[in-house]
Automatic annotation (TrEMBL):
<dbReference type="InterPro" id="IPR050266">
    <property type="entry name" value="AB_hydrolase_sf"/>
</dbReference>
<dbReference type="InterPro" id="IPR029058">
    <property type="entry name" value="AB_hydrolase_fold"/>
</dbReference>
<dbReference type="GO" id="GO:0016787">
    <property type="term" value="F:hydrolase activity"/>
</dbReference>
<keyword id="KW-0378">Hydrolase</keyword>
<protein>
    <submittedName>
        <fullName>Alpha/beta hydrolase</fullName>
    </submittedName>
</protein>
<dbReference type="InterPro" id="IPR000073">
    <property type="entry name" value="AB_hydrolase_1"/>
</dbReference>
<feature type="domain" description="AB hydrolase-1">
    <location>
        <begin position="44"/>
        <end position="288"/>
    </location>
</feature>
<dbReference type="Pfam" id="PF12697">
    <property type="entry name" value="Abhydrolase_6"/>
</dbReference>
Length: 306
């Protein structure tokens, strides 16, 4: 029997949602959506990254769902959302708008947080009416808006054409990831996590990443390799916080600094020493508290009800 694509006990085991639903995107894609926490509570919408799933946010859901309404969804081709022929930044933005429309009341404001490709989703949607209607504030975790392959540090070579070609080959590989073995966990930790990442966090990330089908993994790697949404960062006109790990090899801190400098309303750039790319899992309490701060500052239930 195939092991589940997430751990099944502890902090990083996904809790049962209050309800599940399907959001219909613009091209007909059917997105798996979960809602956790009490109706009427301040809303938080979380978008996961490449090769991940709703399970990636388990620690944040557990911490926030007591007094927040937490919405998570599987990006197309990930988790319980089927793969689609349409893979693009515009498709990511379409999907986010569909989830917001399906889970939030007209005019209701929420904090939107995205990790990696999830952060790219929020930036890609910066001009969209749905985001502008519903975003009270945004948190961008371990993400970038362009030059993702050229500036990646996964391949330990000096910057240049050779490193870029090799990085593209590694990240765009069609090879199956196979079972989660001790060697596989070492590879994943090197590529995506800080050197001091705890074993339970490595295990949690490995289960999720290895659970992603290789077809969608490859398709989305091609989209990310060509991503160029710098102009849209300047259109994200709500209070936006940025979090990055100093040991992130996939989206090194240069990306976070460039985004923070371009944002119209940047409300903080936090660089976490020794932390890698998987910030919501590596330091869940830091990411959760940043979300709480944004909710306290920018979301009020009274405004949402009105």
């Amino acid at each position: 029997m195939r092991r589940p694509a997430h751990v099944t006990s502890g902090l990083f085991a996904p809790p049962e949602p209050s309800r599940t639903l399907t959001a219909l995107s613009a091209d007909g894609a059917r997105l798996h959506v979960e809602v956790h926490g009490p109706e009427g509570a301040p809303a938080v919408v979380l978008a996961h990254g490449w090769t991940c799933s709703t399970a990636f946010w388990a620690a944040q859901i557990r911490a926030l769902a007591g007094d927040h309404r937490v919405v998570v969804y599987d990006q197309r081709g990930h988790g319980r959302t089927a793969a689609s022929a349409q893979c693009s930044a515009d498709a990511l933005a379409d999907d986010l708008e569909a989830v917001l429309a399906a889970t939030l009341a007209p005019g209701e404001k929420a904090v939107l947080a995205g990790h990696s490709m999830g952060g790219m989703t929020l930036m890609a949607a910066a001009r969209r009416p749905g985001l502008r209607e519903h975003a009270a504030a945004v948190l961008l975790c371990s993400t970038g808006s362009s030059r993702l392959v050229a500036e990646s540090l996964v391949v330990p070579l000096r910057p240049g054409r050779l490193r870029t070609r090799l990085t593209a080959a590694v990240l765009g590989s069609r090879a199956p990831l196979g079972p989660v073995t001790p060697v596989a966990k070492k590879v994943l930790r090197y590529a995506t996590m800080g050197p001091g990442a705890a074993p339970d966090r490595i295990e949690a990330c490995a289960r999720i990443v290895h659970g992603c089908a290789r077809g969608p993994r490859h398709a989305w790697s091609q989209v990310l390799a060509e991503l160029e949404i710098d102009a849209l960062v300047r259109e994200l006109r709500v209070p936006t916080a940025v979090v990055a790990g100093t040991a992130d090899r996939l989206t090194p801190p240069v990306h976070a600094r460039r985004i923070a400098a371009a944002l119209p309303v940047c409300v903080g750039l936090t660089e976490l020493t020794g932390v890698g790319h998987m910030t919501p899992v590596e330091v869940p309490e830091v990411v959760t508290e940043r979300i709480r701060e944004l909710v306290r500052t920018y979301v009020t239930v009274e405004e949402d009800v009105a």
